[in-house]
Amino acid sequence: MKILKFGGTSVGSAQSIKTLLNILKDEVKQSAADKPVVVLSAMSGVTNLLIAMAEEAAKGNDFAAQLAELEKRHFDTVKTLLEIRDQNPALTRLKINFNHLEELLQGILTLRELTQKTRDLVISYGERCSTLMISKIAAQYFPSVFVDASEVIKTDSTFGQAKVNTELTEQLICGLYHENKDQILFVTGFIGSNDSGQITTLGRGGSDYTAAIFGAALNASEIQIWTDVNGMMTADPRMVKKAFSLSELTYTEAMELSYFGAKVIYPPTMIPAFLKKIPIVIKNTFEPEFVGTVIQHDCKPSNLAIKGISSINNISILNVEGSGMVGKSGFSGRLFSLLAREQINVILITQSSSEHSITFAVQPGDTERARQVIEHEFELELLAKKLEHVEIEKDLAILAVVGENMKETPGVSGKLFHSLGRNGVNVRAIAQGSSEYNISVIISSTDLAKALNAVHDAFFVQLTKTLHAFCLGTGNIGKTLFRQLNGHAAFLQENNGIQVKIAGISNTRKMAFNADGISLDNWEETLDQAPDQADLPAFIAKMKSMNLPNCVFIDNTASPVPTAFYEQVLKSTISIVTCNKIGNSGPYQQYKTFRDSARQHGVDFFYETNVGAGLPIIRTLKDLMNSGDRVQKIEAILSGTISFLFNNFKGDANFHDTVKLAQEKGYTEPDPRDDLRGTDFMRKMLILARDAGYALETSDVSIESMLPQACLDAASVDDFYKSLIAEDAHFANLKNKAESEGKVLRYIGKLENGKASITLEMVDESHPFYMLSGSDNIISFTTDRYKERPLVIKGPGAGAEVTAAGVFADLINVGAN
Ligand SMILES: NC(=O)C1=CN([C@@H]2O[C@H](COP(=O)(O)OP(=O)(O)OC[C@H]3O[C@@H](n4cnc5c(N)ncnc54)[C@H](O)[C@@H]3O)[C@@H](O)[C@H]2O)C=CC1
Ligand SMILES: N[C@@H](CC=O)C(=O)O
Ligand code: NA
């Protein structure tokens, strides 16, 4: 036989009671010979209301309106679910209950006193009324009997948290069950009675406890706990959207998971069932076909290192420290006995290996009192300076990863701390249960949601990892990146398990945010309609305060302004991906600071597109350097624009039009003068030289200009284009000279012996850089290992598609770490 327990929401309305009855009908159909026992809670909210009425009455306040409301709720439910002819007996018995309750509350009001004993009696009316009502409604379909559990669950007199006399209770339950074998028992959860027949309550998780007591007494085959969620989940679904239901848990895992959270059941009360190895199935009344979670003695082997992550927000820690504790046996005994005596619940304890300090966590409401009682108890030690004053830290949270597999899986704590560290979550204290079923960390409350999501992503790798990107710049590259991301999202999710959510976008006009991701189908409209005007410091502040996991800042601007924020972004443990070269080609010290900050804070700083757009140049150089190679020489064509000009400024072509065409094709910088003056190329040479280990500054790169002075002097882009027309003869001469000699023009960068230069050259077909087309870049690395034949990378080195693709790849590489 089975025990079916229904919680408050499952009996909270006429509609949910109908659903409950359908579940019961199915159960009876399936196992007709073996009638289940049904345990019921009070209608949702009723227990709290009863307590509130009693407390108000004790203060001398009237409770009539609330009582009438409560009565009406039950009466209305009866009237909705029972045939008219059957209503009277049910309503009469309910009315008797409400009359008793009224007398009781009146007594409290008169005496202005509410004892724990009276409180238990008041509360018991919640279960007694709901169960009476439902047993009457159910009698329309099954032979049903109402059971007031106080007749069979016998306890001591610890009101509020009574201890059960197991032997006697089991005898009484068996007797009751056998007397009513042909009927379904509808049992009030949560209540019992002492030797004198006075009502007691069973404490936290009370109705679950009743189900477990009945299950154990009757050797049930299964205890079903019907609630309003899909079983136990991997994490609190209100904070972790990707949390999913667990199909199986061992008793120990269920205990550990619910210790700091998972309010689905309160496993300590299930101990009677655990001892008899009775499976507990958690089911959702509102989605009965969902399999739910089975908690049992043995689970199928699982390849998941952890089963779930539990958490408890809003706790405080107290740190007790001093030389007086070292080697003093009995100190912690004295400390924790004191706290137990004072009924201060200690949630977690860690002790330093030097025994010099003990840190423990308590509920915020207990914090000050804990400090006071400790300082009082250890007054002498404090005076003798053998103990420091107790330190308190508030606004903290506990996060715990839980699972029996942890014991056999190396690297669980490594993964936990890596994901916390990479997300800038500071760990205040750590505790590992000696059972190794649980590793708990104490972190700041404000980091809890971020930490839960990051840790969830790290452990449940079969799920998608979500990157939260904050993007600056919606021009040529920014726009293209959004299009590529949108087009490739499904593939990424399926093949790489990565989801990119654009949590923030800004250009120079507007900014928009959405932690759930701005839709890339209509980001332009979203940004246009966003209420916030662009404000970079505010954008950065908002990005930080959103405190999202796996966060990446993407700079797709050509502006020096964002680069001033890189350091603080990295310090906030947010990775950076940038195609903007201005940061890396600023003062050397700044270049170095970016790398140092990224390393210190365990985040990425990726900028592949700073040189050769999407071509793997930076990555290759990094691999060479990291593997101990040394760059002897670099020769390169790294301006896609100028490469395009020399590949297309042929025959009748005119220079001005060819530059215009390069700009139209998206090869140039937003200001094409940056390309033609050699500034863009210089930045790339500088970044390469620095990555190759040379601490060069801008002034160390010598540039041979390919422009006549008049073009260099142009004060605006318009003037610049005009100057190109005016100087047409100069460019035609250059071209004709090269053509007449069977050569081509090439703007070539060199780095040799730590000296960097860019020169305009004419090369013939014997030169390796002769054969280029489009916006091709080419780079040859001569290194200690690539000496005889250099390592060469060649391909399109400018253009929105290839650049956005490089930014995209960097972003995914951040996700891979
Ligand atoms: N075009 C190419 O082939 C390549 C370009 N790049 C780099 O890509 C970057 C972007 O180039 P484009 O998209 O062509 O430029 P763009 O001028 O089309 O777009 C720049 C965007 O940045 C925004 N912006 C500028 N300052 C801002 C600020 N302070 N805050 C917020 N937004 C700001 C602008 O509103 C605009 O949306 C440049 O740094 C360029 O060097 C890198 C490699 C290749
Ligand atoms: N404007 C640049 C684009 C790539 O960095 C170029 O022309 O190379
Ligand atoms: Na590149």
UniProtKB/TrEMBL annotation:
PROSITE patterns hit by this protein: ACT, ASPARTOKINASE, HOMOSER_DHGENASE
Subunit-level organization: Homotetramer.
Gene Ontology MF annotations: aspartate kinase activity; ATP binding; homoserine dehydrogenase activity; metal ion binding; NADP binding
CDD domains: AAK_AK-HSDH-like, ACT_AKi-HSDH-ThrA-like_1, ACT_AKi-HSDH-ThrA_2
UniProt-listed Gene3D superfamilies: Acetylglutamate kinase-like, Aspartokinase, catalytic domain, Dihydrodipicolinate Reductase, domain 2, NAD(P)-binding Rossmann-like Domain, VC0802-like
EC number, as in UniProt: 1.1.1.3, 2.7.2.4
InterPro entries per the UniProt record, alphabetical: AceGlu_kinase-like_sf, ACT-like_dom_sf, ACT_Aspartokinase, ACT_dom, AK-HD, Asp/Glu/Uridylate_kinase, Asp/hSer_DH_NAD-bd, Asp_kinase
The entry's keywords: Amino-acid biosynthesis, ATP-binding, Kinase, Lysine biosynthesis, Metal-binding, Methionine biosynthesis, Multifunctional enzyme, NAD, NADP, Nucleotide-binding, Oxidoreductase, Sodium, Threonine biosynthesis, Transferase
PANTHER family in UniProt: HOMOSERINE DEHYDROGENASE, PTHR43070
Any one Pfam family match given in the protein's UniProt record, by short name: Homoserine_dh
Record GO biological process: homoserine biosynthetic process; lysine biosynthetic process via diaminopimelate; methionine biosynthetic process; threonine biosynthetic process
Organism, scientific name: Mucilaginibacter corticis
ACT domain span: 320-392, 401-479
Pathway: Amino-acid biosynthesis; L-lysine biosynthesis via DAP pathway; (S)-tetrahydrodipicolinate from L-aspartate: step 1/4; Amino-acid biosynthesis; L-methionine biosynthesis via de novo pathway; L-homoserine from L-aspartate: step 1/3; Amino-acid biosynthesis; L-threonine biosynthesis; L-threonine from L-aspartate: step 1/5; Amino-acid biosynthesis; L-methionine biosynthesis via de novo pathway; L-homoserine from L-aspartate: step 3/3
Protein name per UniProt: Bifunctional aspartate kinase/homoserine dehydrogenase I
